[in-house]
């Protein structure tokens, strides 16, 4: 789904808290393909953006200006071309988007789960950030 001419394709990344995975996906897609896509992220139960997610993005040279945690309710009436859930909980709890043309699920492990298993936070968030970026480059490249 690419926009050749006309309005940009609208993508919404959704997860439970909109505090790391969906935020990273939003910023990474905008960084690589922002000329083709209008990108948003939201959560079913939003909380503040995780500082480690911001650090990972900034370390990649990705602009984090304007990233904030948002509720899916802000987007429910918007025409969205593709809603992409990035966690299993959001896949189950995500509301129906009447304007969405496509729904995709691409789950990524929650970095705090890796931290609980003993991985340092910086490494856990970086690992997941790299996985998200790799998937975005594969999924959205022409």
Topology:
Elements: E1 9-15, H1 21-33, E2 37-43, H2 51-59, E3 82-85, H3 88-93, E4 102-105, H4 111-116, H5 121-140
Helix pairs in contact: 1-2, 1-5, 2-5
Number of domains: 1
Q: Which parts are unreliable, with pLDDT below 50 for 5 consecutive residues or more?
A: none
- Overall 3D form: globular
Order of helices and strands: EHEHEHEHH
- Order of strands, main sheet, comes to 2-1-3-4
CATH class: Alpha Beta
What would the average pLDDT be, to the nearest integer? 90
First-residue to last-residue Cα separation: 9 Å
Give me the count of strands: 4
Rg over CA atoms, rounded to whole Å, is 14 Å
Q: Can you tell me the CATH topology? A: Rossmann fold
* Structure class: alpha/beta
From the coordinates shown, what is the CATH architecture? 3-Layer(aba) Sandwich
**Helical proportion, percent range:** 25-40%
Major sheet size, sense and barrel closure: 4 strands, parallel
Describe this structure in words.
The protein is α/β, with parallel strands linked by helices and 142 residues long. It has one domain (9-140): Rossmann fold. The chain contains five helices and four strands, in the order E-H-E-H-E-H-E-H-H. The chain has helices spanning 21-33, 51-59, 88-93, 111-116, 121-140; strands at residues 9-15, 37-43, 82-85, 102-105. It has a four-stranded parallel β-sheet with strand order 2-1-3-4. Helix 1 packs across helix 5 (121-140) and helix 2 (51-59) packs across helix 5. The longest helix has 20 residues, at 121-140. The chain is globular, with a radius of gyration of 14 Å. The termini are close together. 40% of the residues are buried. The mean pLDDT is 90.
